Amino acid sequence: MFIKPEGYDLVRDKTNGKTMLSDDRLIAIYNIGRRCRELDGDFAELGCCNGGVSFLLSSLIKPSHKLYAFDSFEGLPKPSKEDMESNKEGEFRSNYDEVVKYLSCNKVVVHKGWIEDTLIDIKDCTFSLIHIDLDLYASTKFSINFLWDKMVSNGYMIFDDYSFTGYTHGVKKAVDEFFGDLFRYNHYFMHPQLGVMKP
Questions:
Q1: Is the pTM above the cut of 0.70?
Q2: How does pLDDT run across 127-179, given as a tens digit for each residue?
Q3: List of domains in the chain
Q4: 3-class SS letters over the chain
Q5: pLDDT at residue 166, rounded to an integer
């Protein structure tokens, strides 16, 4: 669906060991990022873990824009009843200091803490691209509700875990509850990733 654009391999090489995303999903994000950088608005990644996708996105944004990267750096919070038993509290723990060092440039701002506590830091920002990789229902639902109105027209909200069968049921539930019929929106699906364009 997405072709590998010029410059991708060079950036991808610098993310080795820093992301668990497959090449097809990273290529999709890279292509959408190239499109969204032409819009007004910053980029954000919620659930940056070791920083690989944030690094890829930061390579695309204009000098006048920023990338806001969020993570608890304590792994997943306690799953809710909407999530699957395979979601484990504390899974995907990462090292804050290592991620800050890896993403050290003036275009990236790293936020440490739970999403429900830290998104308030960007309440006055607008966004052209938001990548959400939170794995769980409650944090995903909170993030959509908080950020959708802060997105510019033609920007994209991307959900990495929309359709991982047996693992991220809560993410799909949160997305479907908010958007309803996805065919009302321009969107793309690159299993298990979903991107929804803001009208």
A1: yes
A2: 999 999 999 999 999 999 999 999 999 999 999 989 876 666 899 999 999 99
A3: 8-197 (3.40.50.150)
A4: CCCCCCCHHHHHHCCCCCCCCCHHHHHHHHHHHHHHCCCCCEEEEECCCCCHHHHHHHCCCCCCCCEEEEECCCCCCCCCCCCCCCCCCCCCCCCHHHHHHHCCCCCEEEEECCHHHHHHHHCCCCEEEEEECCCCHHHHHHHHHHHHHHEEEEEEEEECCCCCCCCCHHHHHHHHHHHCCHHHCCEEEECCEEEEECC
A5: 61
